[in-house]
Amino acid sequence: VTMALEFKARSLGSLGQNADAALAWEALGMLPMFEGMLDNAVVEARNAHDWTTLARVAQARGERSPTMKPFADGWLGEALARQDRFQEAEPVLRAALQGQPKQPFAWANLARCLNEKKAFSEASDACNEALALDPKFAAGLDTALKGGSLVFPDAETAERPAPREAAESRHAIPHHLRVGSLQRHPGRDPDGSPGSLSPCWR
Hints:
The protein is an all-alpha fold. 56% of the residues lie in helices and 0% in strands. It is built from nine helices and no strands. The protein has helices at residues 2-14, 18-29, 38-48, 51-64, 69-82, 86-99, 104-116, 120-133, 138-145. α1 runs antiparallel to α2 (18-29) and α7 runs antiparallel to α8 (120-133). The longest helix is centred in the N-terminal third of the chain and has 14 residues, at 51-64. It is elongated.
């Protein structure tokens, strides 16, 4: 059964049927001893922009693997923010970052939540945290400061958060990359391009 589910999940993913692949990985990940496969469901749910599945998988991951709870909360917060449920997303993301602060995309999603409620100073701080962990956020933040929406690195070039990786030392933010202040600009962010490895805001 497990081999058949894995083959199905991989086949669906390779065919670009990401929503179905996410469900297949989720089914496999819910079996005893296979909870790590839920991480693959996270990737495919992002590809499909299936935020409902992402939220469900993230909750299951946190419940089944307590040590993964901070990362699972980061994914859940992302799913909520992607559905414009910013008030719900903010405390989840804060909990994620309290448990594991070295999550650049969690900081970036928190920045968007704060920006939405016009907490610009806090949003700026959150953006700087994301920049300290991953300078690739610079291009997106530059767009935001010039009058666009918050934009984060394209998934094709961004690294996927690695839950089992040892946390690396934080890098200082180059002066020219630091965010001084954020302003809320009219209009909503359009839906982003598929995130094969990590979420992105476009």
